[in-house]
Amino acid sequence: MAQIVRRLLCDDKTVRYDVRFRVDGVVRNKTFRLRGDADAYKRKVEGDELAGLIVDPRGGERAFGPYATAWIDTRLAKGRPLTPATRQGYKGLLRRHLNPAFEKAALRKITPERVRVWHSDLIKSAGQDQAAKSYRLLRAILNTAVSDRLLTQNPCTVPGAGTENTPERPLLDTATVLDLADAIEPRLRALVLLAGFGALRPGELLGLERRDFDTLRGTVQVRRQAQEITGMGRTITAPKSDAGTRTVALPGIVTEAMRQHLGTYVASTADSPVFTRKTGRPLRRRDLSESWKAACAAVGIAGAHVHDLRHHGATMAAQTGITTRELMVRIGHSSPRAALIYQHATEERDRGVADQLDILIASTERTPRAKVVKLPRDPRAMDAG
Fold this sequence. Notes:
By secondary structure, the chain is an alpha+beta fold. It has helices at 35-51, 64-74, 84-102, 112-126, 128-147, 174-183, 189-198, 202-206, 252-265, 285-299, 307-318, 324-331, 336-340, 347-362, 379-384; strands spanning 3-8, 15-23, 26-32, 76-77, 80-81, 213-214, 219-222, 225-229, 233-237, 246-249. Strands 1-2-3 form a 3-stranded antiparallel β-sheet, with helices on one face.
């Protein structure tokens, strides 16, 4: 428990009152001029101790910038260090959006009002998407500061600030996916089909090796992903989550395309990269992006991304009547919420449902019914008639 120590300053006349208490085994001290203020602070400390809310009064003086950098370097996700791509993304948000506002600020001086104003200004300058991502990162960092007993509460209290309202991207139709596969350079035709009907992520596609395919059974194993990390170049990591490690059954058209691709463009060793440049080196995102843009121009579509192929494959799978759990396994999502994104009806699908209803209604045979005569309530009225 806390205690108050009365002491005299060097002039032997001035009195000060020190409130002393322990934080994680270390004695802390806060000085007051008036005994009443010391008593009030002592009661607060003892109340916080009972509630488990005691914090280091000097910890809140730590600057946000160094604390946030250390947080990114030591952060664990499900017991594992952050992937290089995630760490790079966090550092980018910290550099662009968080440090300009909070780098030199003491943790305790990051108030709810300051966060609210910063978030509002960031929406105007960087857009709602970047503001939401940056807010989530700030909230996570300051949550750890609360756990570290440097703050009593998290000042990130803006309702809905961490939610991205990204508009749903237009869905590629199956005919367009097939057209893009035919329009792209031949060595990438199988990649378009695999993404469009197997729903693999771009990083998963670029990380595939020959040994991942079983063309007899028509399956592909997703066991890694390739990422482009600044200063590190092409980096191979585990899939995005534990659910990302999976085996995906492929439609016949994809299996046949992969069989031809493996025989034409892939070296015979088991660990040979499946998708490569003309030099035989592993395909990079920049190379894929350039070929993709050329294919889109040839087909006559604009604004489509390679990731839209995964969206098509996942949505198409959802429309087969697959359960949410089965869809989660197929596309490598760990949460039902993410999988439900793809279980929506497109306009064409909904029109098809309506057309089928028309057919069912038209084919329904109706039996003529006798005319119903309404009887009077009073039986005597019938006799009178």
